[in-house]
Structures are given as structure tokens and as C-alpha cells.
Design goal:
Number of domains: 1
Order of helices and strands: HEEHHH
Strand order of the largest sheet: 1-2
Radius of gyration: 18 Å
Distance between the termini: 36 Å
Structural class: mainly alpha
Length: about 140
Amino acid sequence: MRQRLTTSGFHLLITLAVIATTAAAWAAWLGWDQVRDEALDGSSTGPYEAWQVIGLVLTLLLPACWAATRRYNIGAVVGIPIGLTVASYYDWRADDSSGLFAIGVAMILAGSIAATVAVSSVVKVVAESRQRRASVA
């Protein structure tokens, strides 16, 4: 019984670390850019550039792959979406008086769950096949 509580506590600690890492990655890549770019024709883009979002995604691959290779998939699948959802909510709520930011936050949640499940599953399968090949050889 004691071993099970220790394992559960460790998994919770991993999940909290992934949440914190994800929120910090959002702040580092997207949190500082709050200005929309105005074009000469009057249209606006932003506030984020494509390279910022790509950098965030590549950064989040690290904790997702790390957790999946160590059989902590739940930590990644729960932690990354929670971290992104909380960070986007905190970042966007003050800028939108219409409340439409909630749709974007919901899309972040749904998309990050789907992407994290896919990445974690692929990494887990690859890691397990490598372990099987190593044990046979």
C-alpha cells in the first residue's frame, strides 16, 4: 500500500512539473508579445508570429517525449493541456471584453489534448519497440 501511494505521489509531482514547464514555455515564447501588427492596408495580424508558436510546440515536445519514454504518459497528456489552457486564459482574458477568448482557450485545450495524446502514443510505441529489440539482441 505504501509503495502505491509513493508511486501516485511521484506521478502527481511529474504532472505538476509538466504543468509548470508548459506555463513557463508559454510565457517565454508568447507571453511577452501583446501587440498586433498593423499593415498599410489597415489589416492587422498577430500578436504572435509563426516562429513563436513553432518554438513553443518544439519546446513542449521535450517534456512530452521525456514523460512518454519513462511511462509517465498521463503526466504529459494531462499536464501540457492544463498548462497551455491556464496560460492562454490568463494571457487572453484581459484583452477581450466580448468573452470570445473563451472559444480560443477551448480550442487550445482540445488541440493540445489531441496533439499530446498522439505524440505520447507514438513515442511510447517507438520506445517499447526499441526496448524489445534490445532485449532480444
